[in-house]
Amino acid sequence: HLMQALKRFEVDLEVATKSDAQLKNRVDGADGVLEMISPENLATNAPTLTQPLALVEEDASVATDIQAALEDLENIGNERAGIEELMRKTKSEDDILSKLMAQSGESLDALFAKEISKYDEAKNCVMVNISKQSDALCKLRVLHDRFVQIYDVDGLRRAIQAHEHDVRHALSVVADLRNGMEQGVRFYTGFLDAARHALEDVQEYASTRRMEKETLTEELRRRQQQQERAAEELARHMSERARVSPQPSQYYAHTPPQYAPPQYCAPSAPQYPQQMPPPP
Which among 117, 128, 129 has a CA at the least distance from the CA of 90? Predict the structure, then answer.
């Protein structure tokens, strides 16, 4: 089990090493892209509206004229607020109902014409305000067209689109690299946890084998001690037996007895009774 886990770790590390090398190559190859989206380079390389090198006198003031036209529009808008206030005041002072109740003999058309004439001032102010707005907008439109032509606003738009495309591409490269790094972090985090568990298993295995070794060593030592005691006991017993056993005679010691080997005799045929036939 441990060897299989270690083999799997070895294979995973080999795959991770190749992935790390590929990611490093991608990072090295993206140096220019990463430098492009640094805050300094973004501020430096961003397209900006620049004034032409050569401007005629009538075109030099186009930006100032646009600013003046915008201020005129703002003032016209402020006049509109005053006109609305005048209309609200005139309406609040209009009490035509009481005049209708007090009407006696006069024509109602004349009464209504007189009452409506109170709003002529507000209507004239509205018409003047609308005319001013129309004139200001026409002037601003002409100035805008001149400004777009003089400062090449269309070229600026194309440059901004190209710069946006480059920045988006750089950001996609960064996102891809970040994704690869996050995968690497997740892998090594999981690998570290697995390695810690494997280390715990190895330590537990080593501890178990160490205890078994100590137990076996103690058993062998005990058996050796038993064998040594048994050998000492046997030696002591043999020594005591040698002291108490009688000594052999001189003849037995120097002249061992002679034994003649037995002579071989062929076996005789068995004798059967005369009345019984021999066995087949």
Answer: 117
